[in-house]
Specification:
The chain has 361 residues and is of the alpha/beta class. It folds into two domains: 232 residues, P-loop containing nucleotide triphosphate hydrolases (Rossmann fold); 90 residues, CobW-like, C-terminal domain (Hypothetical Protein Yjia, Chain: A,domain 2). The strands form two sheets. It has a seven-stranded parallel beta sheet with strand order 3-2-4-1-5-6-7, sandwiched between helices. Strand 2, helix 2 and strand 3 form a beta-alpha-beta unit. The relative contact order is 0.16.
Length: 361
């Protein structure tokens, strides 16, 4: 059976920077073909026009699909599932699907929809990314323009118009696999560190909290989390219920048209990556535990690569996202050198020497 196509759900309030993050991702896709599903409602839908063409061949206009008129939960069978089926049936299937949706309704029901039999064997939720306006959240506002968010909410009659934004925000955090503190440049280092620590304490264990400016995240950080979120709904349950009659299947979309959509060139100075080479390992399980401890000690975001295991002809693949480390034998080395090479990715300032020493011990 072919491998499932990974899908990333991007949520967050109006103005948090979701569209800017996606624009940057498409412009730096490194050849990965990405399809977008955008859930719009009312007259605010401009994201499709903003995103069209910004990914060149990695995301053409035909790869952008828009769902209109209200929250997904009301139209799962009639709108979302058929759109996914159409996308998955293409001869030239995408490498990754990104769904941009709103912070005004729960992300959990959309994730649950990936268990529908029509699509469950062909696609999986790689991860849920919640984008927050760092400056606004630091000030306790949850959105830069609260009035605009409330006006947007009033356009969809399916939404609960009375629930405080703070409760909606808690549900976004409860479902997130990664929280992106956007507009980090507007915060001082102390404020940013404090906010990151606070969000980590409020999120589930292992959820990564990363900073970004203008949504500039390396694609290796944003995509490829491998969570399979639809199989783990119990740990990301709704803290609050906001939907009138559709708590089981519920979703909607927003646009970030109030923010600056001009293209920004960023060189990812906030992140760094380097390669660690070492001798063969003797015990795969012990090595995976060693990798996990090094990640925890140094705040590494991602670690991936291959290892040679003494006495084994097969190559050991290592994939780590935060504290979760997956390892498996994937293929024989054959005539290739029996190298152990690991790529380490994290925020700038990693102690390369200490990390290298710890991974080679």
């Amino acid at each position: 059976m072919p491998a499932k196509i990974p899908a990333t759900v991007v949520t967050g309030f109006l103005g948090a920077g979701k569209t800017t993050l996606i624009r940057h991702m498409l412009a730096n896709a490194n050849g990965k073909r990405i399809a977008l599903i955008i859930n719009e409602f009312g007259d605010l839908g401009v994201d499709g026009d903003i995103l069209k063409g910004c990914g060149d061949e990695t995301c053409t206009e035909d790869d952008i699909m828009e769902l209109s008129n209200g929250c997904i939960c009301c139209t799962v069978a009639d709108d979302f599932i058929p759109t996914m089926e159409k996308l998955l049936a293409r001869e030239n299937a995408p490498d990754h699907i990104v769904i941009e949706t709103s912070g005004l309704a729960l992300p959990q029901p959309l994730v649950r929809a990936f268990n529908w039999p029509e699509i469950s064997t062909r696609v999986t939720v790689d991860g849920v990314v919640t984008v927050v306006d760092g400056k606004a959240v630091n000030e306790g506002l949850f959105a830069h323009n609260v009035a605009a968010v409330d006006a947007q909410r009033k356009l969809d009659e399916n939404l609960d118009h009375e629930t405080p934004l703070s409760e909606l925000f808690e549900d976004q955090i409860a479902c997130a696999d990664m929280i992106v503190v956007n507009k980090a440049d507007l915060l001082g280092d102390v404020q940013a560190d404090t906010l990151v620590a606070k969000l980590k304490s409020e999120a589930r264990t292992g959820v990564q909290v990363v900073r970004a400016t203008h949504g500039a995240l390396p694609i290796d950080v944003l995509l490829g989390q491998g969570i399979g979120a639809e199989t783990d709904m119990s740990s990301r349950h709704e803290v609050h219920h906001h939907h009138h009659d559709h708590d089981d299947d519920h979703h909607d979309h927003e646009d970030d048209h109030t923010e600056d959509h001009h293209h920004h060139d960023h060189d990812h100075d906030a992140f760094e990556s380097f390669i660690v080479s070492r001798d063969e390992v003797t015990d795969p399980k012990a090595f995976a535990a060693q990798v996990s401890s090094v990640i925890a000690a140094h705040g590494i975001l991602r670690l991936k690569g291959f290892a040679a295991v003494s006495g084994k002809p097969m190559r050991l693949t290592i994939q780590a996202v935060g504290p979760r480390v997956d390892h498996y034998f994937d293929q024989p080395f054959g005539d290739s050198p029996r190298d152990t090479r690991l790529v380490v990715i994290g925020h700038a300032g990693l102690d390369r020497a200490a990390i290298t020493t710890a991974l080679c011990a």
